[in-house]
Specification:
two-stranded antiparallel sheet; alpha/beta; Rossmann fold; binds iron/sulfur cluster; 4-stranded parallel β-sheet
Length: 218
């Protein structure tokens, strides 16, 4: 899932300082789980904007704002409110905000109320952890399922830098050293010799942005 953080309300208010009539858009997926763009947060923002003298012409929380068809459906249902709107605040991830913008045929001014932080796995305590940075050239098969590209602060591919202490990374002592994790897993599985195999230099062409992928029609 995509992790977002809501911007400070004063900053959000600054974004729409020249606008009177605001429409709010949330997201029923990731931003709802992150509590940055679910129904509850949209209603809170609505209340704060109204207190600040703005008119909220309407609001919607599409099931997933990054999906074009859902945005189009939400816009169609809220056409009247959108016609009375000077500016739209979107509380989704950057993809959701841009998806709204791309589907807007009214050329509305669209602003992001959230900062998009990273794509995450959610652990059993409900914490969000960045474990993959979508490099396009996965090597988890070589590293016992621990991604050094993302989880090593230096992105090292062939063993630790030497700065780890008690298994913690020298860049951030609160975080595990990815290479110590990989070493321990290899050791448990009697695969230490694997570490003698050099992982080749990455093909950075595979991580050139922006990515896109066309699904083959069956
Ligand atoms: S190597 Fe790491 S960053 Fe690349 S795809 Fe695999 S998990 Fe993601
Ligand atoms: S201490 Fe470990 S995780 Fe941190 S930069 Fe060095 S090798 Fe990478």
């Amino acid at each position: 899932m995509i992790i977002t953080k809501q911007k400070d309300f004063d900053f959000i208010l600054g974004l729409v300082k020249d606008k009177k009539n605001i429409f709010l858009v949330g997201c029923g997926e990731c931003a709802t789980i992150c509590k940055t763009g679910g129904e509850e947060q949209i209603l809170e923002i609505k209340k704060k904007l109204e207190k600040a003298g703005k008119v909220v012409t309407g609001w919607v929380v599409p099931e997933a704002t990054c999906i074009s068809s859902q945005v189009k459906m939400s816009m169609a249902k809220n056409r009247k409110a959108l016609n009375q709107t000077d500016g739209v605040l979107v509380f989704a991830c950057g993809s959701g905000t841009q998806s709204f913008k791309e589907n807007d045929r009214m050329s509305l001014d669209v602003y992001s109320g959230n900062d998009t932080l990273f794509a995450a796995a959610v652990d059993s305590q409900g914490n969000f952890k960045e474990v993959c940075s979508s490099c396009g050239d996965c090597i988890l098969d070589l590293t016992e399922g621990v991604c050094p590209v993302t989880r090593c602060a230096k992105g090292l591919l062939n063993g630790p830098c030497g700065g780890q202490k008690d298994g913690k990374c020298e860049v951030d002592r609160t975080k595990d050293c990815a290479w110590i994790l990989i070493y321990k897993l290899k050791e448990q599985k009697n695969k230490i010799n694997d570490l003698k195999n050099i992982i080749p230099t990455r093909d950075h062409k595979k991580s050139l942005r922006p990515h896109s992928l066309e699904l083959k029609k069956s």
